[in-house]
Design a protein that fits this description.
By secondary structure, this protein is of the alpha/beta class. Helices cover 22% and strands 12% of the residues.
């Protein structure tokens, strides 16, 4: 793969890791990714968050140019951790399967991305309370949420209609406003005892990890369970940290494996709704951008219905800047995805393109439901996560000893304030660890043909695999 070319200080192209910060104190400078060395300065475990809303995400992405990330996201967004900083996370990835092409669903923040996990859409047509591009509906109206609810159907309602048992495990008083169902009319009615009491019990009731463990031991774990972390367990910069997130994940794994019979038929997906604002050098797959007159600046053999921000967002009007009308809905930057299961052990990497709607696609395959909200382009490009498993080879042996994250978590929780490091001067390119990881088979068969005629170049793209692919062209 060839890194995205980004303009350097002299105007020539440089690899995408050389980011220009035009807002730096003292004048514009080049910023490279830099190590947040927590074993030297543990305070770096408690990072201040970075901007991650619709406008700044659009600026950082810049329709794939990705040359001025610090302008939109701050210099601290170029920081990254290494193995010594994240021992539990590395051990988890090397014990199971890591999806390294799993993306946020859309270039914006928390609630919109979670809508794609729970419903496959953000209502691009704007007829059912959307289009959502922000967090206006992350609370009940009495707690500050927009009073005009979302009115489309969620995947859990479809599961329930199919007779599939499901539940959310969470603390309703401390779920970091990360339950997007509180924005929907059906769930708001249930919350106020004016609707389906079953929805209230399954989606809007406090049941923490202790309740999940009890359900595992009692043999009553639902067929589909969602776990919404507490603020401190969320791993989100600000209220949490990687160490605290690791401790929460470890507690969840302890609960799920409390009964070997339950664990032997369980798959756990651990993912993050968005990237905060942290930099990633990989341009996310996206529908072709459009010119000011609406014409495509590229081509697509896939139906693009529902793939663009064409209608005003009533609930998120403050974020809905005219400059970004017409932008594509996703995909967003990569985020970690661990597939933890007896069928995914062994330290595999899966490089198929996925997003949050891929979890719904997995549920479609497992329970024979269909989610019509997923747009055709997204359904064609993003897989259904089944390629992350080898269902012919379950490994139910006890886990190898994982690093205990509790001491680091307690130490991180005791840090009195968040830190906001500036990129050091004279930094160098980050390095990649040596070694090779085993890779799951991919559904792609890609070819590019080149024809040069005079001063013109013709490129012919072919994708003969079973999954659609996106080609980015830079000059």
């Amino acid at each position: 793969p060839i890194p995205v070319p980004a303009p350097s200080a002299g105007g020539a192209a440089a690899p995408v890791w050389y980011q220009r910060d035009r807002t730096a104190p003292g004048g514009a400078r080049t910023v490279l990714p830099f190590h947040l060395a927590t074993r030297t300065n543990f305070d770096l475990m408690r990072m201040e968050g970075t901007p991650h809303s619709w406008p700044d995400a659009q600026r950082g992405w810049d329709e794939g140019r990705m040359a001025h990330w610090p302008d939109a996201k701050s210099q601290r967004a170029m920081g990254h951790y290494r193995r010594e900083d994240l021992p539990f996370q590395f051990a988890l990835a090397e014990a199971f399967t890591l999806c390294d092409a799993y993306h946020c669903s859309v270039q914006t923040g928390t609630n919109t991305n979670r809508l794609f996990l729970w419903s496959g859409t953000n209502d691009p047509g704007g007829t059912l309370g959307g289009p959502a591009i922000g967090n206006s509906h992350d609370s009940f109206p009495e707690d500050g949420g927009d009073p005009d609810p979302y009115r489309w159907t969620t995947v859990v309602e479809r599961l329930q209609a199919k007779g599939v048992d499901w539940r959310i495990y969470q603390d309703m008083a401390d779920n970091f406003t990360d339950n997007p169902l509180v924005g929907f009319a059906a769930f708001r009615a249930a919350h106020h005892a004016a609707g389906d009491a079953d929805l209230r019990d399954r989606a809007l009731t406090t049941r923490g990890l202790d309740a999940l463990r009890a359900d595992v031991l009692a043999g009553r774990l639902p067929q589909v369970s969602y776990v919404i972390a507490t603020a401190k367990g969320s791993e989100h910069p600000g209220p949490s940290s990687p160490a605290q997130g690791a401790a929460y994940t470890a507690e969840l794994l302890d609960a799920l494996t409390a009964d070997p019979k339950i664990w032997a038929r369980t798959a756990l997906f651990v993912m993050f709704d968005e990237n905060d604002g942290f930099f990633d050098h990989v341009p996310p797959p996206a529908p072709p951008s459009r010119a000011a007159d609406g014409t495509l600046l590229g081509g697509s053999t896939v139906d693009l219905t529902g793939s663009y921000h064409r209608h005003p967002s009533k609930g998120d009007a403050a974020l809905d800047l005219p400059a970004y009308r017409g932008r594509a809905y996703g995909l967003g930057p990569r985020v970690p995805m661990y597939v933890v299961s007896p069928w995914s052990r062994g330290g595999w990497v899966n490089s198929q393109v996925f997003d949050h709607s891929s979890v719904i696609r997995f549920l479609e395959r497992r329970f024979d439901v269909h989610e019509p909200n997923i747009a055709p382009w997204r359904r064609a490009v993003c897989g259904d996560l089944t390629s992350a498993f080898d269902f012919t080879a379950a490994d139910v042996a006890p886990f190898a000893a994982m690093p205990d994250p509790r001491a680091d978590a307690a130490r991180a929780a005791a840090i009195p304030r968040q830190v906001s490091p500036q990129a050091p001067l004279g930094e160098s390119l980050p390095w990649q660890e040596p070694g090779i990881r085993r890779s799951r088979p991919l559904p792609y068969a890609l070819r590019v043909g080149e024809t040069i005629t005079g001063d013109a170049i013709r490129l012919d793209f072919t994708a003969d695999g079973t999954q659609a692919a996106v080609f980015h062209v830079y000059d």
